[in-house]
Amino acid sequence: MKNSKTMLSILACSILLLSATFSFAENLVVKGSTTVLPIAQKVAEAYMKENPETKISISGGGSGNGMKAIIDGTTDIGNASRFIKDKEVKLAMEKGVYPVPFRVAYDCIVPVVHPSNKVGDLSLEKLKAIYTGEIKNWKEVGGPDRPVVVISRDTSSGTYEVWEKKVLKKARVFPGALLQASNGAVAQAVAKNKNAIGYIGVGYLNKDVKAVTVNGIEGSMATTLDGSFPVSRPLFMFTQGWPKGETVKFLNYVLHPAKGQKLVKEAGYVPLY
């Protein structure tokens, strides 16, 4: 009988310990910008290795979708490659939501062409003329006698909004432009088309596309930090109100100079420090 009571006590303690373990396990949901996506994925992987009780699910969809998810309360963190818009602030206030921004990295948006294209530099004015349809042939900018295929991001993209502001100066994109839903899709489309031009975050540059300098300036860590590259921007993670619990722990990890910020650099982006 004594042994039975002892076994029951041990079993009860085990159940309590097991319950305590599960009670501390947390799931984090991260949605939004495809530019911030590689950073979030890399940091989340490292964070879950150090905190195996935490599960983090990450999806893209664009900055607009990240902000919508924060306002709707369907994500813990909303990734955005641009700052929150006035209309999003208004909608959030109407719903009693107070989005809080955390700057997590810097990025520059680099024009890219097919590796076979000899064009290596374009001014902001020439880029605008290409994207508004004024320039239609590569020979007009020192390239081959071939039509320009314009590839752009869709309007829900923070990358598009920065490009629209800094390159197009609020002008409309050429109606014949081929729209893509992510940085990766733009890079892939340019890699497969000798006549194409696109623009992607610096973290998406690869050997299958050729980076083009802007006004003679290369998009790099140094030119992003000193502000000399004309199409640079900060990257954000937003929370619904001031973060708590696992969310604040994760954000602290992202911002840690020797942890998350090291991984930002490994992902091909520019760390804060």
Shape, please?
globular
The unreliable regions are 1-23
Figure out the total of helices.
10
Return the string of H and E elements. Answer: HEHEHEHEEHEHEHEEEHEHH
The amount of beta strand, in percent, is: 15-25%
In total, how many beta strands? 11
Q: What is the CATH class of the largest domain?
A: Alpha Beta
So, the CATH homologous superfamily of the largest domain? Periplasmic binding protein-like II
CATH architecture of the largest domain: 3-Layer(aba) Sandwich
Whole-number radius of gyration? 23 Å
Task: Write down the domain tally.
Answer: 2
Largest sheet: 9 strands, mixed
Tell me roughly what share of residues is in helical segments: 25-40%
Look at the structure and give the mean pLDDT.
90
Structural class: alpha/beta
* Separation, N- and C-terminal Cα atoms: 65 Å
Short description:
The protein is α/β, with parallel strands linked by helices and about 270 residues long.
Lay out the secondary structure:
Layout (H helix, E strand, L loop, with lengths): L1 H23 L1 E7 L4 H14 L3 E8 L1 H10 L4 E4 L5 H9 L4 E15 L7 E2 L1 H8 L17 E5 L4 H11 L9 E3 L2 H9 L4 E6 L8 E2 L1 E2 L6 H5 L6 E9 L4 H11 L4 H7 L7
Parallel strand pairs: 1-2, 1-3, 5-10, 6-7, 6-8
Antiparallel strand pairs: 3-11, 4-8, 4-9, 4-11
Helix pairs in contact: 9-10
